[in-house]
## 1
Amino acid sequence: MNQPILSLQGVSKEYQSKERTFAALKNVSLTVEKGEYLAITGKSGSGKSTLLNMITGIDHPTSGKVLVDGLTIGELSESKLAKWRGQHIGIVFQFFQLIPTLTISENLLLAMEFVDVIPAANRANRVTELLTRVGIAEQANKMPSTLSGGEQQRAAIARALANNPEIIVADEPTGNLDSKTADSINAIFSNLAQSGKTVIVVTHEKNTDLKYRRIVNLKDGEIEIPTT
Amino acid sequence: MNMKLKKAFSDLLISPKRTLLVVFALVLGIWGVGTVYVSNFIMTNDLNANYQSTIPSQLILHSDRFEKLDLKQFNNLPEVETAELRDFTLQRVEIYPNVWIPLFLYGVDNFDDMKQARIFYETGKKIPDSGTILMERDCKGVTSIDTGDSPRVRIGSKITQVTVSGICFDPAQAPATQDAFVYAYTDKKSFSQITGLPSNRRMIIRLNNVYSSDDVKRVSYGLVKKLNAQGIVISSVEIPLFNEHPHQWQLNTLIFLIGTIGLLAFIMGAVLVSQLMRSIMASQVRQIGILKAIGGSQFQIFQIYIAMLLLMGFIAGIIAVPLSVISGSAFSQFVATKLNFNILTTTIPLSVYAILIAASLFLPVVLSLSILIKGTAISVKQALSDYGISQNANSRESKAFKKSHFSNTFRLAARNSMRNSGRLAVTILAMALGVAIFSTGFNVRQSLYNLLSDVKNEMRYDVQVVLSKQVSREEALLPFKSLENVKLVQMWNGGRGEIQSKLLSTNKGAGIVALPTNTDLLKMKMIQGSWLAMSSDNEIVMNQQAWDIYKQPALGSEVILTIENQNIKTRLVGISEQFEKAKVYMDIDKYDAVFNPNHLVNNILFVAKTNDYENVIAMKKNIEKAIVSTDFQVLYVMSQAERVKIIYDHLNIILMTIVFLSFLVLMVSAIGMASATGINIMERTREIGVMRAIGATPQKIYSLFVMEGMITSILSIGLGLILSVPLSKLAAIFFGNLMLGKEAVLQYAFSPLGFVITVVVTILFGWLASQIPAKSAILVPTHKALSYE
């Protein structure tokens, strides 16, 4: 068994309003091994996005711990967390979320500049390498708005890989794409997992069995049936 | 290129209009402050430098025994820097046919070696030919007399013609154009020849080691004592304002005024910049979340927006700094012309540019710092779940409002206005401040007009003849027997006197006016106490200038009045408000009993039957004609219309500046409002798309936004007009003190014209400020509006 890269230990998350307390996650424990290709599924409101926010440090649990590579991320300050996130986790969003005023290559360069783990002299080559890997090298100098949805998502994946993180987290990455484009994006994630990256994908898709090595289904904030 | 810088730069180009608006706001703010800074720098330096270049006298002694003085020995006294016997007389000169004004004639010892009270060559002769005069350059603003002309000059009762052989510049004098005087200079021999007066009756002195008026007073005691010991009896001592130009108060008022309004314009600009930065930050919330999600720390993201501000500040600086230098220099030149001094600053020091550039770069950063810190501190989760402006509790309609007969569009506009209550409050406050200042500008102007009107009302005579030598009542009336249009003639007396105090007076004392207690020709506004009453006491009333000079004696206190070495015990019963030099009023019978046993007079006051401007001026000319053939020694003949004009000329420069600058403030406020409306519209782009999708016509959407703007304008006008009342009162107190004396209060006045202009201009600005962004809102296609994030 590979060593776990991610471990959620009894994680609960509650949201309070004047009227009531809503439990988005209820005592969730989950271990993800290095190089695993994991899908988190569930209906709308099941707690998928909340779980993803716990993994990426975007949100913090009400109780329980999130450990990434042995580090309790809840103990990091916002700024340290941002730097840690840029270095260790690549995030891919449903709506791509590229910076619209920068070209595709500049979007990648900005991510590298923020984290500053790739030496400045190597950054241009790494941009070319990553864009070639996701198949949009020729779009490097174009603005995001001139690219198709699929191309934008590939660019977003390349950006997520910019600082060579161990974990790639994707929130409904194909939710906004047609099935053919979605398949090509899924293929990229699959390849990334094969190359040793840990890939966690939140998805609505029903026919997930063939694509992912493990599927975690959430229902009402609890892990329903861990399937291997 | 650094990607953070690249992002900052490219973000500026997302919305060029908004960027231009920020730059414009910065330009206005920096321009306002820059103009004030540059003009303040030039004027403060140059007026003082002009004045100091004359090496002004610090002490003036009068005596008819100076022939006993060894001037060389006096000059060797350790406390004396330099002393000179410079003659002076106040006579009259005819500037146009039958128009005579005061002539200040000086007799100079040596034009080539003036060690103090220097004048400077302009044109014509540098040293006047024998029997001729040099005329001060500003006098050309009140007369067409020029080099080579020989105007008539009345010396006492004698009329003679004196040729002007040159024009000179005397920056130490109050501007001739404002006071309607002619200043002239001749040599001592010609002085006696022209005037027939004895020379060497007046000594001007500069002292060593004096740093204040009090020092001068202290030293003057000793000097007067020494001179008296030599048998040189000093008849009067004058101590001019120490190191201060006579019209420094005007400059101080202007500097304060432009400083205040420049600062307010800057605050408005600052509000505008922070509003716009708030909008930029609001529109980039999700991007901030993404930047944080891909590894950007708060500081790194903060740097992007700082770079953005620095870029905008740099662009604004490039525009505003040269503008500030140009407008600051132009304003200084305007003031210099009005106050008759030369602009000596030829180049603005690099430090001024450096300060302005630093202000351009760093002020926007400082002004937006809290917004940037707050904006970049947002957590990734909050940022990613931000969907722009939302409905809130403030926008809920009350039941009464629901049941009202307002149109749906109006109700929706009113509700929308309340959606971002914080921004609405800032917008209304900024606009209301602009309205308040604009309205205050008009109200202060009205107060000053009222003051002029009061001057007219308090002095209910039309022409006043003031004689320097008293005559009998019969003699005084004789030349005017056949004068037409005369309703009433009254005769007063008076002279120059002193209220006894431990200190020597700081100027020429006060004018004592002796008049019938029950006169109808003078009805002054009293600040404290009451007008003279028929009583057994020797009552006096002081105007506030006299009251200030004599250290504000208590009402009811006993004061000793001295005129030509004769004393009278009096009681102060009132202090009046008057835009005049220091004057003390007392009953003519009581005055005559002590000082004027022959009941002579030196003031003849005429009231016209028909007192419109033309008839009064005609009457004045006829009076002048009648005087020509008399032996009267006339100090001046002045009509009320001219008196008011002189006061108006003193205040006009201030009035013009007040209204112009307050208009600028209102304009900046309107731009602030335009930006706030623009931000509201931009944030609701998607909402506009939804409205369009469910059938709202572009006209409907346009009306909605314009109505929102008008609601803001109307609320701002209401609040602004309320704020303008205390602001106008404060401004009236400030200007009153500055112009009329420490205790004087310029009465608050409401300007109906200002009210109408304020309301119309604000509504117009409000309409423009909302219709421009509203028009651009309806130009966005529905599909683009719907996909706007």
## 2
Amino acid sequence: MEKTANQRAWFLVLPVLLLVAFSSVIPMMTVVNYSFQDSFGGNEFFWVGLEWYRELLRSERLWDALGRQLMFSSIILLIEIPLGILVALCMPKKGWLASLCLVLMALPLLIPYNVVGTIWQVFARSDIGLLGRFVTDLGFEYNYAQNAADAWVTVVAMDVWHWTSLVALLCYAGLRSIPDAYYQAAEIDQASRWSVFRHIELPKMRGVLIIAVLLRFMDSFMIYTEPFVLTGGGPGNATTFLSIDLVKMALGQFDLGPAAAFSLMYFLVILLISYVFYTVMIASDKEEAQS
Amino acid sequence: MDWIAWTLPTALFFASIASALAVMSLLAIKRPSTPRVGALGIETARGDRLFLTLLGSAFINLAWIGFTDLPQYFALGICAVFAFCVFRWV
């Protein structure tokens, strides 16, 4: 007997499709339309063709912001991933101490982004902040509001404080999924601590590490609230990342056309990076399943 | 719908994307494709190749706008060659 396909199930996904259409597709179409036009308010638009794209691609503004963004994402990945692994390796495996560690690690993740920015804004102030005062008392001239290097160190430290625990929790979950038999075999072979990490723990954590890198890269690439609250993109443009620059353009200057072109290029870069990460993740999963 | 600020070129652009998706969906039903490993060393189905073509074409066009003053039609020609290569070898 021939089996008939029941296509009525497609109606079940209709609400989701409608939701996606209203929350993503229609706004995206609007942005594309704006990016080819100029607006002087009053809902009047004038066709300018590729002008905004040409202007942006040939200005230093976009490339500088992209450079800062890539540098920021690279720095935080280089710090947060090894630090997260180290923290996960040091966490107790069972007992009440393990539960306590998990709760403490989850706390920074529960704090809203703008509150994190505000906490660090006060914490790092050289006159009244605990960190700022401490660093100043050590003899360093530290002022994140006036010195670009200090601002960068503070923004990076804030991100590391906020998000390393996510990497640690993911790695911890990966570590806990390794069967005891692996450790017992390593013990019989008298493997060193490094060998256990290199040949058992690290390969078994590969899946969660790829997810951690993907999450942290994408999140840091789209960072806005925390550095905006902490430094406002300054001093000068030292910590003006892509999203901060975009908001300045769209809402500060009300340049809807250039901002739309900027956001589409930003979106394309994110789409490309996401696809690369997705492909790597799928390939890794397949390799893991085959081994 | 005035606030979406439609123009004929952008409407045609979205219509062509929607048509491509519709054609791919129909093809997937009528003649399902088998994923293959191509020149990039990754497994791709027909839909993946369309996605790669669209994404790559966007970057080709942006590079053309950013680095040359020549008409955009040349970039479209390059995109057509690129699409052929992706569907043939990737």
